[in-house]
Write a structure and sequence with these properties.
The complex is a heterotrimer of chains A (150), B (363) and C (228). Chain A is of the alpha+beta class. Helix content of chain A is 29%, strand content 23%. Chain B has 16 helices and 9 strands. Chain B starts with 17 loop residues before the first helix and ends with a helix. Mean pLDDT of chain B is 88; it is low at 1-14. The chains are: A alpha+beta (150), B alpha/beta (363), C mainly alpha (228). The B-C interface holds B 229-230, 241, 243-244, 252-255, 257, 273-274, 280-281, 283, 311-312, 316, 322-331, 333-334, 337-338, 340-342, 344-346, 348-350, 352-353, 356 and C 2, 4-5, 8-9, 12-13, 16-18, 20-34, 90-92, 94-95, 98-99, 102-103, 105, 118-122, 176, 180-182, 185. Bound molecules: protoporphyrin IX containing FE (2 copies) and iron/sulfur cluster (SF4).
Amino acid sequence: MSGLKDIAVTVIGASADQPGSDPSGNASAILHEIADLLERLASDGSQGMIDLRAMPLTSGDRAQLEEVLAAGAVRVAIDAAGPTEVVETVYPGVWWTRHHNESGETVAEFIEVTVCPEILKSHIEDVREGGAQLRRVLVPDASDANESDD
Amino acid sequence: MPDSMKPRDAGDAHEATLGERLAARGVSRRAFLKFASALASMMALPPSMGLVMAQAMAQAKRPSVLWFPFQECTGCTESITRSHTPTIEGMIFDMISLDYHETLMAAAGHQSEAAREQAMKDNAGKYLLLVDGSVATGLDGAYSTIGGQTNLSWLTEAAKGAAAIIAVGTCASFGGIPKANPNPTGARAVSDVIKDKPIVNIPGCPPIPVVLTGVLAHFLTFGSLPELDALGRPKAFFGDTIHDRCYRRPFYDQGLFAKTFDDEGARNGWCLYELGCKGPVTYNACATVKWNAGTSFPIQSGHGCLGCSEPDFWDKGSFYKALPVGQWGSAATLGGAAAVGVAVGAAAAYAARRRQDKIAKGD
Amino acid sequence: MDLLTFARGPGLQWAVTIFVIGVLWKLVGVILLRAKPDLSEPRNPSTWKGLRLIITRSWPRKEFLRSTAFTEVLGYTFHIGFLVALLFYLPHILFFEDVFKGVLGVNFQQVFGVQWPYFSGGVINFFGAVTVAALIAVLIHRIVSPVKRLISNFDDYFSWFVTIAPVVTGMLAYGHVGAPYQTLIAVHLLSMELLLVWFPFGKLMHAFTVFLSRGTEGMQFERKGASL
Ligand code: HEM
Ligand code: HEM
Ligand code: SF4
């Protein structure tokens, strides 16, 4: 059986969302915005967020961002409807969040300027439900309680 | 099968908030926040809206939704049901209380019609009406009926109590393939029939599922419909052409085109304009959202865009003709025009000579 | 019917038809006119050599070099720019090849053995920009120069307008500037159709008649023994 490999397909320059490799200036714009947001976070605690998919980034821009915003002390792997990776950069308070779906595609990517990204916090409703669940586990004869069907 | 179609457990389904429902289905609030953030990003909302949307939607009661199938192929339903949790588009069925959908509901016959009427009565003024398929209007709608009633009468009846109507797919949005020349059934778009209700068009053959999620999320969060373009399509998803966002665009700009489907250019992944790509005149989100969990979209798979989210796409000539091709007329017309031109020119010259002669003769 | 459907369909077909009728009407009408008899004694036995004026009029005589340099250079600039944008841009070529095949029944490539060469979009836009600049300059010249202004009428200004319009709208469409692409492309096509419709009935007809008039004039001059 012939597979795709047998067909001489050479896709050139099609690295999808990266139109070019030269820095376009968007990366420096983002970095300056982050600096502003950091000052605001430090002064009055207001949080900020930048959607990295909201503007076109060349591979050069990405390289620049990744170089400046290198990984710092915290790196969290979340498994919620596909992997999510949250990394605090070398600048405390600047977090880089990458959301992937089950097939590994990036579905969203943000820079968050905050003391703790929202997604890391346990939601109080989940806490409540989890607590109730634990109670049910601890009381074996309460078997008539609704189990959540995962 | 979408969960909402399961028999309801004693009266709580309508009361439960979306957040509770999702939690009961094992979707953590964390996953929900992630979905909402991704959705906000996709809809080009400010990134902070992700959290707002997650909070608002978690508290929201699921709206009652009636889904009417008219002259359609069920491809739209297929497209949307093929998306399943845990994906963003799969949330559609958690976000709504689907009270009527012929293809998906367990009930049939009179039972299902009773369910429809009940839902319309219970939620009058509040329910969302989803329509896929065009509305046959020929012979007073007799070309397409359900339970002895015309689609036309269903639509006009149900529209009265609807908060808004969402036309799912190109047929409901613009008339679609049933409206193709010569349109034997008098097929019309929903918006041709209903004039006094807000209507969102989500065209596409089939439409991109996540657009429906986005519209519903907007409705649940803000209580309103998202911003629409001139053709009633949500701008967040239909704001750019395929060509605007196509990864082959640099090749178009450089003048590198595939000339056949198996030449060097095709193998190099060059632009498909000459092979009939309609991307430049098609507004849709395929190039960014893509299909099958972000795997690919037609152009990425080597085929030009058909322009399926635009009105009358099937009547605009061959899918394989480049945009400027086949529009100028025919050799016969040009030949006729040339003959007319020569004749008029000769007549003009003759008239001029006659006048010269007259003047020469001194008349 | 939306604007683009009209521009691509009936609008285009009518424009092409009117263009063909008009051009042939005007050309045949002029060619079949009776020339005024010249009763003077010819100074030269054969007047055919006068046809070289068709070529030699393409540049100014030495005496006029300085006074006409501005108009000449700009004139060449926008004519060449216009033709390059029209003839060497792929979407246009697809259109012309299609007409070629429709009329002659064979592919351009089969007849000439080569592909119609074309430039990338960037190059075409460069030529477009140069064309627009030169056209604006000649318009200013037409308005500023008292003599030119005096001899100009509606035809001159309108012909200028229909010439610059497709170039401007083409560039806007290429850049997706200012309106949805479908609208831009419709406007581009409509501007091109306006050009086609106006062409035979105004001074743009010079594209054909300029050769006729130079030839006739050359032969008359030759007969009179004037220096060409
Ligand atoms: C810099 C100058 C120009 C640019 C960038 C430009 C751009 C374009 C583009 C992008 C198209 C493609 C339409 C499509 O894909 O559907 C097009 C089509 C066309 N343009 Fe231009 N154009 C320019 C100048 C002109 C001029 C000067 C004329 C003629 C007077 C002209 C006549 C046409 C014609 C006949 C078509 C094909 C019709 C069709 O698509 O159905 N263009 N042009
Ligand atoms: C082979 C074809 C053509 C020839 C030989 C030709 C020749 C000329 C000449 C000799 C002039 C006068 C130059 C001057 O005032 O300096 C002129 C002017 C002009 N031509 Fe053409 N032309 C041709 C085609 C065209 C075409 C296709 C168009 C537009 C569609 C065009 C548009 C114009 C315009 C607008 C002017 C007036 C410029 C002004 O305002 O000074 N020409 N052309
Ligand atoms: S493949 Fe189609 S959409 Fe992509 S650049 Fe070419 S013409 Fe545009």
